Amino acid sequence: MIGALVIAVDGPAAAGKGTLARRLAAALGLPYLDTGLLYRATGRRVLDRGADPHDAAIAAEAAAALRPEDLDRGDLRGPAADMAASTVAAIPAVRAALLEWQREFGRRHGAVLDGRDIGTVVFPAAPVKLFVTASPEERARRRWLELQARGVAADQAQVAAEIRDRDAQDANRPVAPLKPAEDALLLDTTALDAEAAFARALEMVRDRLNFLDAIPAEA
């Protein structure tokens, strides 16, 4: 079962979903894909051209031209990349161009994928879906600490404002807005450190898999 398993991990920025998804993949022996990097790399390609990420035609071209090596760039994090990614992710042609990339990755051998619409759009039939969240204040604090650790000067109040802006843009976009799938397992990591969050997520995934294994196959 595990070899073909797809686990969808969704949630807002800085909720800890990427760390959780990566560790779940390692624990379950599955490939891992941070789908947000696809949108970050697309947004960065647009910025490289000196273009506006709101330009749908240019953004769609950038998404269609994306290559695996684009995901290894060192400039896919930070405020500019964050907002560019969120902007291009609201463009239908960009999402269409990247949809099959994500589905093929998951279909190949099973996978853990994290993003914002994995459980609602990319793999709506995934047997296990997690929606990872935390309070806006805690997510802003985590993002600020992450930037500090990378030597990036940042004002915590500004980081909080950017988190709120990103949340609003992701939740209100007309295409694949950020929201939990109806059957998603909700995990609030506000009061959890990384180890506790991982332990709880792994417990939730294993409980769901055990529950599904216990359901008799249809005759």
TrEMBL record:
It is an enzyme of class 2 (transferase). ATP binds at G11, P12, A13, A14, A15, G16, K17, G18, T19. Residues 7-206 form the Cytidylate kinase domain. Keywords: ATP-binding, Cytoplasm, Kinase, Nucleotide-binding, Transferase. GO terms for biological process: pyrimidine nucleotide metabolic process. It is found in: Cytoplasm. It catalyses: CMP + ATP = CDP + ADP; dCMP + ATP = dCDP + ADP. SUPFAM superfamilies: P-loop containing nucleoside triphosphate hydrolases. Its EC number is 2.7.4.25. GO terms for molecular function: ATP binding; CMP kinase activity; dCMP kinase activity. One of its GO terms (cellular component) is cytoplasm. Belongs to the cytidylate kinase family. Type 1 subfamily. This is Cytidylate kinase. It comes from Belnapia rosea.
